[in-house]
Design goal:
Blueprint lengths: L2 H50 L9 H21 L5 H17 L16 H23 L5 H32 L3 H15 L5 H53 L1
Helix pairs in contact: 1-2, 2-3, 4-5, 5-6, 5-7, 6-7
Length: 257
């Protein structure tokens, strides 16, 4: 056989083998990417479900519930598209779809939307972290086109107000504690700090609470003035008593002379 033909056959076989190798590596790479993406989507599902399980930390609006449910639903859709062998996810996705339809028919209940002030400072800190996390999620879902602009503004306004309320109510509680310990000055500083924050807001809660905090400062100032007058009166009474005692003693000594 001609040596040239042999070289051509060898070159063709080499190219075919190289093509097959590259194709296999590409398929492996694509499969790895799919696995990573599926894993990532399941992480989104799990983290979102964990958030929804913490609905007792702060009140959840209908907008927020739908945002989180749609976040899970979109993750299910991606998983179904990437892994055709998964038979459980489509069933879960269908159940979630019906759940979204039910929630979308509801309206916010004002009574259930009321925030309950936590007893412990750490609980308030955790609530603030939770609100910050939710704000990040709704913004992320909006950036992906999964949460409308109107809903985003409404929910961000609600979460911002909730953030202010958590801070202010915790601040008032700390001011009360300072007052009980006799640290009126520290209590007034805390209340003034709260007023500075509230004066930058225009919602109903901020306006009403700002008036409350100003009244609390006036009460503390009145109490300070009253205590000061009582202290002066006690001091004057003590001085008068000592003066009488000294005069009596001096008069007694004069008689002895």
């Amino acid at each position: 056989m001609d040596i040239g033909i042999v070289l051509i056959i060898f070159a063709v076989m080499t190219l075919v083998m190289l093509f097959i190798f590259i194709r296999i590596q590409h398929q492996k790479h694509q499969a790895a990417l799919k696995r990573d993406e599926v894993k990532y989507q399941f992480q989104i599902i799990n983290s979102t479900q964990e958030i929804m399980a913490c609905a007792d930390v702060i009140p959840f609006s209908i907008d927020l519930q739908l945002c989180l449910l749609n976040r899970i639903s979109n993750a299910f859709k991606i998983i179904c598209a990437l892994d055709a062998s998964d038979t459980r996810t489509p069933v879960k996705a269908e159940y979630l779809k019906r759940q979204i339809e039910v929630v979308s028919q509801k309206v916010d209940d004002e009574e259930n939307m009321e925030y309950i002030v936590p007893d412990e400072d750490q609980q308030a800190i955790n609530a603030l972290k939770f609100v910050k996390r939710l704000k990040g999620i709704v913004q992320s879902e909006h950036n992906k086109g999964c949460f409308g602009s109107e809903e985003l503004m409404r929910e961000k306004t609600r979460l911002d107000s909730l953030q202010v309320k958590i801070n202010i109510e915790n601040l008032v509680k700390r001011a009360d504690q300072q007052t009980l310990m006799g640290k009126t000055g520290s209590a007034k500083q805390l209340l003034k700090k709260g007023i500075d924050v509230l004066q930058t807001k225009s919602d109903e809660y901020s306006l009403e609470r700002c008036v409350d905090l100003k009244n609390m400062i006036h009460e503390l100032q009145f109490e300070q003035q009253r205590n000061s007058k009582d202290a002066i009166a006690k001091s004057d009474s003590f001085i008068d008593e000592r003066t009488r005692e000294i005069n009596q003693l001096f008069n007694h000594e004069k008689k002895s002379w």
